[in-house]
From TrEMBL:
Domain named NAD(P)-binding: residues: 8-188
Pfam family, one: NAD_binding_10
Full protein name: SDR family oxidoreductase
PANTHER family in UniProt: FLAVIN REDUCTASE-RELATED (PTHR15020), UPF0659 PROTEIN YMR090W (PTHR15020:SF50)
Coiled-coil residue spans: none
Superkingdom in the source lineage: Bacteria
């Protein structure tokens, strides 16, 4: 059975992904700076590794088949942490993945990361960091899928999405729960390697819309 490393497992989306992996009896390793943030998983089969993403965390990749990078500096930090986590830590994760024969590397990015100049935004440093991290992953030779959701909400997820960008920012929003579900679906589909897509709240089942979008059989 393959083993999945979740980088940023204590974040909101990371915890949702980790919880589902544990409940599904998947073999998983959670990478966090402070393992006390995952106390709810005590007694489970989840392997927890403590590491600072600003330092060397290559040991977390030992024996890993799949990587889910959902780490982020957070909205309350400055451009320095955005640079160190959203760009540099992501770059290091790709470097480590290159050395360990990873089958899938799923990167959580953001709408606007394709062209940070094209959107008026007060988080442009974040979009630039995501853009550069995405580009580095794409050029690395590591099998990847990049997910670029719209503005995130804590609404209850319904498992309904669209990959077609709506016309207004309000319509671009998506619950974190549905982003987590989408990432977990991607984890089961190596035929989505090499794909990049945006995610928004919609009316299509996750598996249906991704199959149609990328002509999967």
């Amino acid at each position: 059975m393959s083993k999945t490393l979740v980088i940023g497992a204590s974040g909101q989306i990371g915890q949702l992904i980790t919880k589902t992996l544990v409940e599904s009896k998947e073999v998983a390793r959670a990478l966090v700076r402070d393992k006390s943030k995952l106390d709810e998983f005590k007694g489970s089969e989840l392997e927890i590794v403590e590491a600072d993403l600003e330092e060397d965390f290559s040991h977390a990749f030992d024996g890993i088949d799949n990587v889910i990078f959902v780490a982020g500096s957070g909205g309350s930090t400055g451009a320095d942490k955005t640079l160190l986590i959203d760009l540099w830590a992501a770059k290091k994760a790709v470097d480590y993945a290159q050395k360990t024969n990873i089958k899938q590397f799923i990167m959580l990015s953001s709408i606007g990361a394709d062209d940070p100049d094209a959107m008026e935004s007060d988080i442009k440093p974040y979009l630039v960091a995501k853009h550069m991290a995405d580009q580095y992953l794409m050029a690395s030779g590591v099998p990847y899928t990049i997910v670029r959701p719209g503005p995130l909400t804590n609404d209850e997820g319904e498992g309904k999405i669209t990959t077609r960008r709506p016309t207004t920012i309000k319509e671009m929003k998506i619950p974190r729960a549905d982003v987590a579900k989408s990432i977990l679906y991607i984890l089961s589909r190596e035929d989505l390697n090499g794909k990049i897509f945006e995610l928004f709240n919609g009316s299509y089942d996750i598996d249906t819309i991704l199959s149609i979008e990328f002509d999967l059989s």
